[in-house]
Input
Amino acid sequence: MLLFSLSRHGAIPLLPGTLAGVIDLAVDWMTDLKEGVCLSAFWYSHEQCCWTSNETTFEDRDKCPLWQKWSELLVNQSEGASAYILNYLMYILWALLFAFLAVSLVRVFAPYACGSGIPEIKTILSGFIIRGYLGKWTLLIKTVTLVLVVSSGLSLGKEGPLVHVACCCGNFFSSLFSKYSKNEGKRREVLSAAAAAGVSVAFGAPIGGVLFSLEEVSYYFPLKTLWRSFFAALVAAFTLRSINPFGNSRLVLFYVEYHTPWYMAELFPFILLGVFGGLWGTLFIRCNIAWCRRRKTTRLGKYPVLEVIAVTAITAIIAYPNPYTRQSTSELISELFNDCGALESSQLCDYINDPNMTRPVDDIPDRPAGVGVYTAMWQLALALIFKIVVTIFTFGMKIPSGLFIPSMAVGAMAGRMVGIGVEQLAYHHHDWIIFRNWCRPGADCVTPGLYAMVGAAACLGGVTRMTVSLVVIMFELTGGLEYIVPLMAAAVTSKWVADAFGKEGIYEAHIHLNGYPFLDVKDEFTHRTLATDVMRPRRGEPPLSVLTQDSMTVEDVETLIKETDYNGFPVVVSRDSERLIGFAQRRELILAIKNARQRQEGIVSNSIMYFTEEPPELPANSPHPLKLRRILNLSPFTVTDHTPMETVVDIFRKLGLRQCLVTRSGRLLGIITKKDVLRHMAQMANQDPESIMFN
Output
């Protein structure tokens, strides 16, 4: 039985792992397609094309005869103004084509494929159902359009949407087994494991994926779900490693290893980066939510294709002249994270070398910055401002858009600049008291790449408010245990600073913006109200819509369904006694009546509906009765009218309930829905309960 269960849970992450590998390979090729094409095989990326060339030298490893830029291919020119302008135009045209295809596919075939998907996954795992959100069409279109939008050069990432893709895979496999398809609780456990698999393949961080599912996504996370998530993350990471999309035996493009320890004096700049991350997170959330609200409430929201095309055009026009915004964001992060070795050719590693240096490759001492480093610094400063602004307008458009990579890029750019500043300060002023104890002349004291990594963690933490899972993900990216303290310091600082301006992370803010009924586990409810204060109907309101167990006709029930929009109806013995029997879901009632009319003879509008075990003997001329005992939930969740609301809120959170019935001695008094709970909590927080809009 255990092996069978594992095989089912092992099958779920195989598909996300495979899809992640295919997406990585496709993005690599299509990103390079904007700049040129491989003559020997057009499906090769720039790097793959030059691997096969025998004429490529180490110094010019980015140039090879088999790879031609568009200017070389179309007008046979590689240098000069005309070649630059032609390459510029081709870059913009390819970006516009990719973005147009993506937004068109989403709009026509799968509207739910837009956005990150994490706010909706959190809402679904809390017990709310969004039909079609995890469907097959959403899976297919999100996978295809994710490749297109990342390749277009827009300021977004694929990591968040990969969680949505993995959950779609989990939902698909769940539907194949009745044990999961007919049990919402077990299905949600599978989705929690799928979310872990999604982060596992996104970052190459299996343990970080499990913790992300626990900390950020899942509502209820029992021990068996922890084990299943761990197993799913392991299989997904193994599948991606088998595909080896980057050709370097690593699961992500920006895996790095550092060789220099950090020193206590460096905690101050690390904490400063944490402050920057918290401020960036606050700025981003406020500006992005304001823009998204404007999009929802003005005519701007009626033209999603035009908005995507406009943002893509502006992004491509501004990004191309700067090498740090032209390259893909993953490659940018990889370059910023890298430690400058003897073989690095990046501008960021253009230091003035001592000709007498005879040290191992891994232990190059701090050196004065060269012209390339100073050029890179102002280019990075411009790229940082551009990324901050453009990401605010990009996240939330009607295309798949992740936030992890743009946030990490903002932090990595800020961190690298701070790291170079500290490095040069230590080199030129090694006799200062703060440097004297640990930075002697000729020593390798400061690693700017480590600052980039800490900055990336700080900014991602400021936006999402992740802490534990964030540190573990970043630790798994580097493979170094000794950098956990700097990462923890930055993550905690960014969360404290961001929380000082508002408790909501970006995902919670979008949940509220979209009007999803979501009870945040992190919110405390300490008021002394009772269930009777919240339940409906209240005094002066019409009585509760109920079904009786043996006195309503098919026509009565159809009329009730038509006149109301409730998800279900309590079933009572009679309207006089109001003694509760069970609860019937609206959808199951509609299906049962439809099937009975089609397949059972004698079922007409005045047929009596029975929820009892056996209907009584009927006169010979009476219409055929309709038995619906099988669709009745005989054990709906109930509380008494004197149950404290603190307990009710806790029950809704932990069980993912959508409604619970209020009784006294078995007699039905009313109903409490999740929306009623949310309105009551808003009222207790001195907010207008009617101002909370639900989608």
About this structure: The domain at 264-340+377-514 is CATH 1.10.3080.10 (Clc chloride channel). The radius of gyration is 30 Å.
